[in-house]
Structure formats: structure tokens, C-alpha cells
Write a structure and sequence with these properties.
alpha+beta, globular
């Protein structure tokens, strides 16, 4: 159990760009990462409108939760990014 990978689900909305578009992103991240670390890694620091994060859980559960949230919102596009 102590070798289990832990994660959490980060959901965020970016600020509108010059064309009035924003992104709504749901992604599982490793438990040790903070939202700020993730935004910096993605080059989005200072471009976030709002965000929320779940509690720490097993990474497999975090991935399933993220996929379920996407499905519940009617999302039809899932992209996987390497951490």
C-alpha cells in the first residue's frame, strides 16, 4: 500500500484570450504537485480564472474520476499529457 501512486484531480478554467476563448480543463495530477506547479509546467501561470482540486486519492481513482467528470459534462475529447 505504501508504494501506491497517489494523485488528485485538478479542474481549472483559463482566462479568455484575445478572441474571447477560454479552456475548461479536468486533469489528474500527482499528489505532490500543487496547482501552481502544474500551471507553471503548462505555461499557464497568470492565465487562470479559477480552479478547484480534490483530496488525495489513489492515482487510478483520480484518473477514473477525471474521466467521469469529463463524460458528465458531455466532453467528447480526451487528451493525455505526459507528466
Amino acid at each position: 500500500m505504501k508504494n501506491m501512486n497517489l494523485g488528485k484531480v485538478l479542474t481549472f478554467v483559463t482566462k479568455k484570450d484575445e478572441f474571447g476563448n477560454s479552456d475548461y480543463v479536468i486533469t489528474p495530477i500527482p499528489a505532490y504537485r500543487t496547482p501552481e506547479m502544474e500551471f507553471t509546467r503548462l505555461g499557464l501561470m497568470g492565465k487562470i480564472e479559477s480552479y478547484e482540486m480534490t483530496a488525495v486519492m489513489p492515482m487510478t481513482v483520480a484518473v477514473k474520476l477525471a474521466m467521469q467528470k469529463i463524460k458528465d459534462l458531455g466532453g467528447n475529447e480526451v487528451r493525455f499529457m505526459k507528466w
